[in-house]
Specification:
mainly alpha, 5 helices, about 90% helix, rod-shaped, disordered N terminus
């Protein structure tokens, strides 16, 4: 190739086809099979270059959100611990009124009802967005 591989890798596929057709010498005398083979090779090279670009962009974006995602995961763990402590507090408060077993069961029902209500609202929002 007289023009160099890097120029073809960065060019859109239409320009690659035009360049192959316009090239002098071997291209005019080459059989159509050889031209198609070169076109396929250039297309593969172009595809690999595009894939490398997309991969690099995705890695750069992932690097930006990595630390905030870890902080968010830690916040979720503390939130979950807070819900557990809240449930235990309800159970202990109810245990003085209706007994330990009944207090624990009622606290569990309260926490599960809240979770079910949130899931129901989320499902309605998802069904409504379709």
């Amino acid at each position: 190739m007289g023009n160099g591989g890097s120029e073809i890798e960065e060019a859109p596929i239409g320009e690659v086809v035009a360049r192959l057709i316009e090239e002098g010498g071997e291209s005019k005398d080459a059989p159509i099979g050889a031209l198609v083979g070169r076109l396929i090779d250039e297309g593969k090279r172009y595809g690999r270059a595009e894939l490398g670009l997309v991969r690099a962009q995705a890695e750069a974006k992932a690097e930006v959100v990595k630390f905030p995602a870890l902080l968010l995961a830690g916040a979720f763990l503390f939130l979950q611990a807070g819900v557990v402590v809240f449930g235990m507090t309800i159970a202990l408060a109810l245990a003085t009124l209706i007994g330990p077993l009944a207090g624990g069961l009622v606290a569990t029902l309260i926490i599960l009802s809240v979770a079910g209500g949130l899931a129901f609202v989320a499902k309605r929002k998802l069904d409504g967005s379709k």
